[in-house]
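Continuing from yesterday's entry. The apo prediction looked reasonable, so today I'm repeating it with S-adenosylmethionine included to see how the binding region is handled. Same sequence as before; SMILES copied from the compound registry.
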Amino acid sequence: MDSSLAHWLQLREASDAQSRSTALTRDIAAVVAPFDTVNVLDLATGAGSNIRYLAERLQGRQRWLTVDRDADLLEALLERMHRWGHGRGYDVNVGPDTCTIRGPRLDCHIETLQLNLRVLHDRVLFAGRHLVTASALLDLVSESWLRDIAGHCRAENAAALFSLTYNGRSTSEPREPEDDLVLELFNRHQTTDKGLGGLAAGPDAAAVAEQCFTEAGFVVRRAASDWTISPAERDMQRLLIDGWAHAAREIAPRRSRTITAWHGRRIQHLDAGHSHVVVGHDDLAAWLPRST
Ligand SMILES: C[S@@+](CC[C@H](N)C(=O)[O-])C[C@H]1O[C@@H](n2cnc3c(N)ncnc32)[C@H](O)[C@@H]1O
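Holo prediction written out below.
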């Protein structure tokens, strides 16, 4: 496993949960409420943060297929669901690739599948799904990937919920003169090929997804889900600032000295306990009108 990715996903989970749009979550919960058992597909599920956020909000019987290319993250997902379920007083059973969590208002079966989602040709993945979801994914995928997923959702009459798509708008306080430069370089890096269908939609992903789903006949709603990260969340800020600098240097190696100097000053603000960071995200929910 990429242990740094596992660590990052663990660090961000609380901020993700605080930032997500409760209104869009409620919309989607209402859309899938009529089904006795809700069949959910969670794409690029990582260690399962999206399941831990949604399961109790969807309530009732749920069958999740959770897909990621990283087998170790999927193993971590089962361990974390086990801890999460026990912590909330549920009965939890974990098998080799599955996990069942049961309680008075929740009956949740989770199956993990290791698969590279580079292309979305496998219709079986989508067959019979009522909800297709992903968190922190869409900015990594290409426009054609988004068009394909809208088509699959349309073919299955499935609703969609995509949370925490980075939208390119971040601010840091106190300000530094190179903040805008580094943000521009980072955003450019976000549009390189991330292995999901070609050049990534990057900061435009939520807008492109909105267009693809609208053209496919869906009702589409978007809402802000920005992170507001306080000085106390030092580890998370540290990884963010390191990541911005790393990506900016990769895109513009000739600006390395400027970027390194900027990085040093941002870390000084962090160490002094007065660094505030806001990272812009969008949530998107889409569903087909009943008559369609
Ligand atoms: C930013 S993480 C988000 C993980 C999780 N959804 C969450 O919110 O914590 C992106 C995830 O995409 C997965 N991923 C990236 N490229 C992939 C690919 N080509 N096929 C399948 N999974 C992929 C990574 O392994 C990682 O788990």
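Comparison notes:
- The longest strand covers residues 159-173.
- Strands lie at 37-43, 60-68, 91-94, 98-103, 106-114, 131-135, 159-173, 219-224, 227-229, 276-287.
Will overlay with the apo model tomorrow.
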